[in-house]
Structures are given as structure tokens and as C-alpha cells.
Design a protein that fits this description.
Radius of gyration: 18 Å
Helix content: 25-40%
Length: 233
């Protein structure tokens, strides 16, 4: 990416505060995420998780403090470089956000088509990613023909099309039953093992306890705990 930052170095939140009027969504938050680390972000509704994610995506700017990658402040990027920066970040949401009138293959291919990739490269990349998430045999199905867990796998596949170095999963199991939730968690662990940094925001205590990864806890905008172990209270 020209004159930009890449997720090959430490992500650092340095005394980050975000105000919305008189409300402090984040309050003097500091932590770092190493390349290829798997970090779980927990906290009740209103804790600041969504704000933190918006700051990472450059959808919002801190009121105070800095967010840096490889020593570069991401919020000093010129506007024209932000789309290139965001292509390095895969994002998965709770509600899937799939295009109902497109097949699984077409949903995953769509972003590549918009970016002008040639058809042969799109076919190769999408087929590879669908194989990774276990949906190669569902390529021609439409979202309405899939289970909730399968829909989330499509969403994860779509988030991986630009081979991001950093994946944000925002409550990806919120609409799923326990079995499908665990399958999605295992897929995220697999993606992490292949070299992608993962930030998982979740309320699911069973998932937090099961994956045995670092946990950052927020409450009322403050960083309350930063634990290498997976239990939280």
C-alpha cells in the first residue's frame, strides 16, 4: 500500500480516549497486539468494544491518544489511502450481511470484482477460500439455502478475499447455537494459525473459556483486565 501502514508490526493503543459529546466511550485505553496474535475483547454492552473497532477501521478518530502500527499513526493517513488500509483488515459481523440474490461464490467474489481483479484470479482465490472455510461444495447455493453457521462461514470467507493480515470478528457467534458457535471459533483459530492476527469481540463465555487465548476486558470505556488466560468474570 503506498505510503501507508501494514499489519506486519505491533498494533498499539496509546492512552486512547474517545468522546461522544460528554460521554466517554473509551477512557485512556492502552494495550498492544502483536503480529499473528489472537486476542479476545470482552465487556458488557456499552463497554466500548464497538468504538474500539471503529477506531481501528478509521471510521472514527480518537479524541485523545494514538493508534499506531509499525510506529505510524493510522489516523494521520491521507483520505485517499484509507481504502487501501482497510483492505488489509477482514471484518466479520454478527448479522452476516450477505447479498441474498447472489450465490455463495458470488458473495465472496463480489469485492474482488469491484476492485477490478481478472476473472481467472477471482475464480482461483474464491475457490481456495471456500475450501478453507469448508464450503467448496456450497459454492452455487444461495444464502437462503444455508444454515446460520454456513452463512457465517460465507461471511468469514468474504472477509478473507484480500488476504488480510488482520481479522476483526465482531460478535460472530451472536446468532448461532453452541455447536455452530464452537465451529466458528475453531475456524478463527485455524485462520490465526495460518498467520492472520485475530481480534474477536464476544459475549460468549463458553467460547472465551474454550479457546485459551489472551482476553482484554472493557467496562464503561476503561480497560479493566488484560489476561493471557481465557477465564474472565
Amino acid at each position: 500500500m503506498p505510503r501507508g501502514v501494514k499489519f506486519l508490526e505491533m498494533i498499539v493503543f496509546d492512552k486512547v480516549t474517545k468522546h461522544y459529546g460528554t460521554h466517554k466511550a473509551l477512557d485512556n485505553v492502552s494495550f498492544s497486539i502483536a503480529p499473528q496474535e489472537f486476542v479476545i475483547l470482552v465487556g458488557p454492552s456499552g463497554a466500548g468494544k464497538s468504538t474500539l473497532i471503529k477506531l481501528l477501521l478509521c471510521e472514527e478518530k480518537p479524541t485523545f491518544g494514538n493508534i499506531t502500527i509499525d510506529g505510524k499513526d493510522i489516523h494521520l493517513l491521507k483520505e485517499k489511502y484509507i481504502p487501501y488500509y482497510r483492505r488489509q483488515i477482514g471484518v466479520v459481523f454478527q448479522d452476516f450481511k450477505l447479498l441474498r440474490g447472489k450465490t455463495v461464490f458470488e458473495n465472496v467474489a463480489f469485492a474482488l470484482e469491484v476492485s477490478g481483479k481478472p476473472d481467472d484470479q477471482i475464480k482461483k482465490e474464491v475457490t481456495k477460500i471456500l475450501d478453507l472455510v469448508g464450503l467448496k461444495e456450497k459454492a452455487d447455493n444461495f444464502p437462503g439455502e444455508l444454515s446460520g453457521g454456513e452463512k457465517q462461514r460465507v461471511a468469514i470467507a468474504r472477509a478473507l478475499v484480500f488476504n488480510p493480515k488482520f481479522l476483526i470478528a465482531d460478535e460472530p457467534t451472536g446468532n448461532l447455537d453452541p455447536q455452530n458457535s464452537w465451529e466458528i471459533a475453531k475456524l478463527l483459530l485455524k485462520i490465526n494459525e495460518l498467520g492472520t492476527t485475530v481480534l474477536l469481540a464476544t459475549h460468549n463465555r463458553d467460547i472465551v473459556d474454550a479457546v485459551h487465548k489472551r482476553v482484554i476486558s472493557l467496562d464503561k470505556g476503561k480497560l479493566m483486565r488484560d489476561r493471557k488466560r481465557s477465564k474472565y468474570a
